[in-house]
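Task card 7
Instruction: Convert sequence to structure tokens.
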Amino acid sequence: MNNCITTSIFDIFKTGPGPSSSHTIGPMKAALLFRDAMAKLSLNSTGESLEIDVHLFGSLSLTGKGHGTHKAILGGLLGWEPESCDCNLLSRLLEETEKIYEIPFNPKAKTKPLETKPAKTQFIKFTSHHIHFEKVGAKQLPFDGAKQLPFSNTLTFKLSQGNQLLLEKEYYSIGGGFIQCKGEIEQERERPPHAYGNMNQLRKILRKTGLTLSQVILENEQALTGKSKKQIYEGLDNIIGAMCTSVERGLLTDGVLPGPIGLLRKARILMENSHHMKQETGRFLAMLNAYAMAASEENAAGQRVVTAPTSGSAGVMPGVIYLLTHQYHLSREQLREGMLAAAAIAFIAKKNASISGAEVGCQGEVGVASSMAAAFMTYALEGPVKKVENAAEIALEHQLGMTCDPVGGYVQIPCIERNAVGAVTAVNAYILAEAGDPARQKITFDEVVETMMETGQDMCTRYKETALGGLAVCCVSC
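Output:
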């Protein structure tokens, strides 16, 4: 099988600043790539100043400011990385329109033979005026005039000196923090020992080898990344820890979220009020909602979260995991097993459809996250693979067609509550699968993933992260 899944667990689960993996983490990575490309240039000093211009298209242009795209780009040009950048410092970038930032630039010096002249550090002056939001009409998206762009989330970087264009790169942010560069072929990973492209093929491998789902995912990860089993488990523990930290930070924090909407955080008060609810079921669901909203509010505030599979859906899995850790008291081993099952679901959804709100709407973000969380819970609680698939299918099936319509272009309304609803849906999908009869389930996970992609392709662009339709235009209070 040539067209098999070669995605790493840690491609799906990675830490970075909110509020969006496609609009924040992805553009920061693109800026880092452009910074690396600049460093490889060989230039003669002409005395003329250097200038960088960045142009954003499609969804990036329409909701980029609300998602902090401009700040992420500057952070990347300054050499900041998503995994380690100071989120608070990042949020303060470009707050002053006229403030000048100096980007260090160390090109290779053009030297004569036998000369060993070191490259001289130059500084490129950069302001908010160097980032251009190329907004176009809704009917033209994703077009730049007569030029059709291959992906809605497109950004171009241009380095020039005077009237001379020295370097130009075009990048596509394809969801979940993944980046593609025009004209560059991504280096292929080695074919894993258990090659599969969808759930049906994965099931066949499990039957043929007698291996468990977690064993297959683990062995593939070892082959793809060269990591040992111990290293993979340590990485999973770190990711789980980061998820729980985002929940705990969110539960301790109150106040107004950034941006013009003036939205108050809700997780802390929801958690406090849950203790006064008389019905046990109500308390259980209120706490789950609070956990998911806490992590999602941290994302909306631009704090560090885990993509699962995206930042916009970064509250669903942490909410369920925190519930399982504190109410069900799952062991570390069970949590690791659940993470491997969730990764398998994400792999298949990304491979055969999309996890980008700009491509298929929020069904590809919160919908897939809910599906992952349902699989996580079922497998962690030692459910059989067929029930894992059923839980994943049920969770995604009932979020098909969900639009991505952020009010004001901010990942707040309806995004935060949508994460909470996605977490509750995941738990209910687990219940339906665990208490049900797998033989009576008619729809497969592969079928619902295919349907999600078809639905996303048919969905009007106004409902795909552009803030041009749905709640984004119906909400008049902001």
